[in-house]
Amino acid sequence: MVRSTTHRRSPRIAAAGAIILAASVALLGCSSSDGSSASSGGTKAEKNTVNFAYSVAVMQLEKVPLHLAMQDLSSIGMTGKESFSQDANEVVQSVARGESDFGIGNASTVFTAIKTGVPIKAIMTTNLPDYVVAAPSSIANPCDLGGKRVGIQAKVSSVTLYTDMALGGCTGAKPNILVLPGSAARVQAMIAGQLDASAVQYPDMLTLTSKAGDKFHSIYDVASKNPGIIDSVLFTSTATLEKDPNYVKAFVGHVLDQYKKVYEDVPAFAGEIEKAVPNMSAADAQTLAKQATDEKIWPVDGGFGGTAVQDTLDAIAKSGMLPASSLPTASDCCTAKFIPQS
Fold first, then answer.
1. What is the CATH number of domain 18-128+229-333?
2. What is the pTM of this model?
3. Do 133 and 162 meet the contact criterion of CB atoms below 8 Å apart?
4. N or C end of the chain, less CB within 10 A?
5. Residue 3 and residue 162: Cα distance in Å, rounded?
6. Closest C-alpha to 71, from 124, 38, 63, 100
7. Per-residue pLDDT reduced to its tens digit, 249-260
8. How far is it, in rounded angstroms, from Cα 291 to Cα 296?
9. How far is CA 229 from its chain centroid?
10. What are the tens digits of pLDDT across the range 299-328?
11. The domain 130-225: what is its CATH number?
C-alpha cells in the first residue's frame, strides 16, 4: 500500500525509533563471530573467517563486486559466509553485536546509528549512487515535478536524499511524496499509472523503459550530478577495529582489489552480473556493466579521500531529511585508516 506525505524541507526523523532500538540492542555487547582474536599491534591477522551482512534481500548490481570478493576470499587465506536482510538497521545491529564481522548499509542509516551510540564505524565507501530520477517523457527536469506523485523508499533513505537533491534548485516545486518501498515496486506503480516519478536504480530503469517504451526517461542522474557523494558504506564494530586491525585492513584491501578487476575487464564483469543477480539477461548485464563502470560507482581508492564524507553529511543535512544534530562528525563516523595505501 502506498502512503502519502506532504513534501517539506523540514527534518524527516520518522525512523528515529528504529535507530534508537538498534543502538540499545547493539550496546548489549560485541564479540568476535568466530571466537578468535588478534594482537592489536601485531603484524598478523589471526582471524580468518568473514561473516558478511548485506542490506538487501537478494543480490543487486551494486553489491556484485563485494559478492565476488567474498567468493574469492580463499586467495588471501580466509573463508566467508554471506547473509541478506532488507533492513539496513538489522545489519547495523548484527555487526554491532558481533554476529557479522562486516556489513554494508546506506550512508544515512549507518551515520545516524553511529550518532545514537551504536559501536560501529564506516571503513570505506562501497559504492556511489546507482540511481536516476525517472519521469514521464513530458517532464524535462526535476523542477517540472510540482504537483506530481513522486515515490520514495521511506522517510529516511537514499531515495529520499536523492529526490531532495534533485529538487534542490527548484524553488516552489512541491510534488506529492508517496512512500512506496522497493525500487521495483515503484517502477510497477509508474507503469500502472499510480505514480509519476521516482528515483530508481539502474536495473529498474531498464525494466521501466523495456515495459513502457518511451513513456518514461531519466531526468536526473544522481552520480553524475553529485560526484563524490557516498551511497553506501562498508562498516564494522569498533571492537573489531581495536582487536583485529590487520584482519580489517586485509579484508578492505581484498575488496578494493576486486573493484579494480571490475574496471579491467568489463565484459567479464557483465558475465558475473548475469550469474549473481536474479532474473538478469545477458543483454541487460552488459548494459548495466557499462553504465556502472562508466560512472565509476565503485571507488578503487576506498572513497574516503578528500571531502567525500563531509560532502555526504552536508548533503543529508541540507536536504532536510535529517537535522545536522542527528548526524555525527566525519571523524566520528568514518576512518580511512584501514584502506591500504597504493
1. 3.40.190.10
2. 0.84
3. yes
4. N
5. 19
6. 63
7. 999 999 999 999
8. 9
9. 11
10. 999 999 899 999 999 999 998 888 899 999
11. 3.40.190.10
